[in-house]
Amino acid sequence: MEFLLEGIKAITWQQIVMYVVGAILIFLAIKKDLEPALLLPMGFGAILVNLPLSGVIDQNGVPGAIQWLFEVGIEASEIFPLLLFIGIGAMMDFGPLLSNPKLIFIGAAAQFGIFVTICLASLLGFDIKDAASIGIIGAADGPTSILVSQVLGSRYIGAIAVAAYCYMALVPLIQPVVIKGITTKKERRIRMEYNPKDVSKTTKILFPIIVTIIAGLIAPSSVALVGFLMFGNLIKECGVLDSLSETASNTLSNLITLLLGITISFSMVADKFISLETLMIICLGLFAFIFDTFGGVMFVKILNIFTKKKINPMVGAAGISAFPMASRVVQKLGIKEDPENHLLMHAASANIAGQIASVVVGGVILGWF
Amino acid sequence: MFCYDWNKVLENLNDALDISWKGMLSIFLAMLIIYFVIIILNAATKKKEK
């Protein structure tokens, strides 16, 4: 009967803490509706991999199911996050950005938090590769965070993924506080005209191809990220692959999301996850999101000094990759200040620019090392 | 790896600052190029439509 007690005897306090972490993630997913597609599999996976002598990690000397998924889907080729990018690309509509391209620079400015966080993480004692992996939480883009931290060989991939997805879900809580803190009521009431221009189908088809070529030439390391994203978008925009586009945006992305969540939990094994560094990464992730918002808003404020047609500074906050949450936050705040001030389409343009910018930054950082 | 060696921290911070300004510059340049691509594409396809 001794074998029945083997598991119970092998349990450690760190594993019990991880069950609590798993339970919190499941609670946030179900009760608070925070990124449930990712947080629920991650929460359940956190419990699964921390069961003593867990068969999903090691099955009598042979890699268990979750270890195998991690080795094949993330460690060997980073194929899971990349496949997810095909699905995201197939869901994206570059139309608002193509009809209003001047807001594209907001997407660049709102990546500010990434670099401030890299500096702070270095100052706190993290190795430069780990610091870069932590900084990329500020890309507000889960797959990019996972991919960059994996390629850079960061051992904090679990904490980085948890922070990235949690803060993406918390954008509606984080951004309004930062925006209100750095803008005046008058600035938040700035009205913006919306005169959309027609965008031809040819432009929509050529755009993903040309951007892939440009990104590949400027930052070759970004080709995988940008290329898969743009490939997904090309499938959608070409107009002759409707069933593939449908599959990519629904079935493929659902399937990969399902596997990605539970696979990432491999890096949430108690002895790797429970540390002071994890706590610091969670705090640094929040710092990255705050400074992304700060960067975007301040960029617009500076731009407004030199331009006649003022841009509402809140639109700057939408320059992060979290789509469409960031746009909705700006629209909500705009309406709250002035019921007739509709900023949604402007914010959507900045938000799409943020999506492109975040993958390019991921590539730039990868290219650095 | 996490380290508390002050000299190493300074070295990492130097690298981080270097990545930061070059990274921000690269992203603005990339977006500038994409901006021109959009302008050219919109102009070219508009002309064709006319």
What does this protein structure show overall?
Chain A is mainly alpha-helical. Chain A has one domain (12-368). Helices cover 73% and strands 1% of the residues of chain A. Chain A contains 21 helices and 2 strands. A two-stranded antiparallel ribbon of chain A has the order 1-2. The model of chain A has no long low-confidence stretch (mean pLDDT 89). Chain B has 50 residues and is mainly α. Helix content of chain B is 88%, strand content 0%. Chain B is rod-shaped. The model of chain B has no long low-confidence stretch (mean pLDDT 86).
Amino- and carboxy-terminal Cα gap of chain A: 54 Å
Count of helical regions of chain B: 1
Number of domains of chain A: 1
Largest interface, chains and sizes:
A-B, 48 and 35 residues
Report strand % of chain A: under 5%
What is the number of E strands of chain A? 2
Topology:
The complex is a heterodimer of chains A (369) and B (50).
Chain A: H1 2-10, H2 13-30, H3 36-49, E1 58-59, E2 62-63, H4 65-75, H5 79-91, H6 95-99, H7 104-109, H8 112-123, H9 128-135, H10 142-151, H11 157-169, H12 171-182, H13 185-188, H14 201-218, H15 223-238, H16 242-264, H17 270-273, H18 276-306, H19 314-317, H20 325-337, H21 344-368
Antiparallel strand pairs in A: 1-2
Helix pairs in contact in A: 2-3, 3-16, 4-16, 5-10, 5-15, 5-16, 8-9, 8-18, 9-10, 10-11, 10-21, 11-18, 12-18, 12-20, 14-15, 15-16, 15-21, 20-21
Chain B: H1 6-49
